[in-house]
Amino acid sequence: MSQVHAHNVLNKLLEASTPYTLDSLRKAVLAEYGDEVRFHTCSQQDLTFDALMDFLLSKQKVVIDGEHVVANRDRMCNH
Fold it and tell me: How many domains does the chain have?
């Protein structure tokens, strides 16, 4: 099982040429890293994709804009 930093998901959102829905982001991330991937942040470990999104939404690092998931640059750390 791989461990991936949440910044990879945030960068995927920032670099996207077309916006992601939550479902399309889940599919793209799991296709890239595999179904068993776990994510970590500066303060959290061993998160599933859904747990990661819950965390990022709670910290307003991502927001839902209509049906799209958008990275909030103002709330992202830069390391």
Answer: 1
